[in-house]
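Example record

One chain of 508 residues, shown exactly as stored in the release files.
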Amino acid sequence: MVVVASAWQARAASYYVDYSGGSDTNVGTSTLTPWQHCPGDAAAAGVAGSTMLSGGDIVIFKGGVTYDVDSTRYISLSVSGSSDNPIIYRSGDLAGWGTGSAFIDATGGTTTSHIIRLSSVSWVTIDGIVMGNLEINGPYTGFIGGTVGTPGNITIQNCTVTNSAGNGMYFQGLFGSAGTNPSTITVSNCVVRDTQWHGIFFRYGLDDLTVINCTIFNSGVDLVGGSFEGDNITFYRGSTDQMRNIKVNGNDISTSPEKGHILFYSPMTDVDVSGNYFHGTNRTGGLLFGVSMTNATFYNNVFETKISQYEGIYRFNTDSGNMVIDGMEVYNNSIQCELASGSIFFFNRGNCTFDTMFYNVSIKNCVVDSTGANRPAIQIYANSAGTGPVMDMATFDSDYNTFAVASGSLFTYRGTNYTLAAWRTLTSGDANSQEDTPEFAAGEPALRLAASDTVARGNGVNLSAYFTTDKDGNVRPLSGPWDIGAYSGQVTTTARLGPGKPVGGGRR
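Predicted structure tokens for this chain:
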């Protein structure tokens, strides 16, 4: 029997790149005949420069070797893969070639705006490569660069991005123009650290965005001087372009000295932020919501952080006009935060002129521990006319929580402070909530309940109609009460892999 390969199988190839020992005159199809430069690099010559990648091709950078991009060039891919056969850039150690991760180094590239640029291409995967030392300072630079109309279907996995004077990763979609939003961008199992701007920056209309199992820290640090600001993850819009189907799950996100953990600054629909560990010190809050959002869930998140200047862990405050939040569930979060101002849940109008901004907001089974003096757990402002609250109280549902503040009142409503008893009378809510602090187990992960705790264990409402596991993936009961907070019935502690752990590719 004769087997005839399909056209794509005939074309698909593995190409090898060894910057220190390869030659662009080699055929590039084996570890014995590698190229020096990657196709798409302006410096590629010979066979490497004339080779056009196609779907299914894999470009393998030798593990442990540093690949230099200079002041005038970066790697730019101009062709797309397909759903069955993406184009892949991979570190050689994942393919058994070399030791340690391949490193693409931009040191000295003061005019290089990106390290790898994917413009108007789709079905591309970057796997296991370390990239860093981007020296050009700007809010719209980064290791991945998109332009208007970038089709999407981009996967970045097992990569490290370090020491970027721009963003760590930058993706750009449609901006106020006709067409379908680019979709399906996945960042998984990556480390993004030490960026002068945002860690991961999604800009303009984009759909189906996933950030999962990543470590992101030190966003908004001064690396090369000049302007800087950076949230760990930013969803940003330029006009009314909307983002849809957003997932931020299972990440370790910490320390943004200039900004906060996540900035939601694009109109968004269907948002899932669950199972994350937020910690360290930020200047401007934890999660900042600045524009409209519909159908958002925040399950099993842990916050162990300090906010040094501006308000709130869940901070709603717009300076971009009117906004509406409709449908938000904050369930089984464990929050312990030192606040300089504001409150844990900070519902402010900013410059919104609507009488009501917040509808169908629900806070349940949360541990809420505000350690800053006189910082309430929940703060609801009056509307701009002063005629009522910014919250639709008929659809506001808060219950089965534990509340503790260092001093002062637990709640603030339209400028007046309330105790738990007075809050219950005012809102008819939190009938089953407690003013107490759970007992936490020693060690890490943080805020895990001690076996002897009686405050949070078994005192939550069963929410299995919404989700069925805790932050560790342990199955929660399908019937009967739940434990309050992100963890359920587990006391085993493990060592935390903190952000201080050295990662390859530091500035030379």
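Notes: DSSP finds three helices and 39 strands in the chain.
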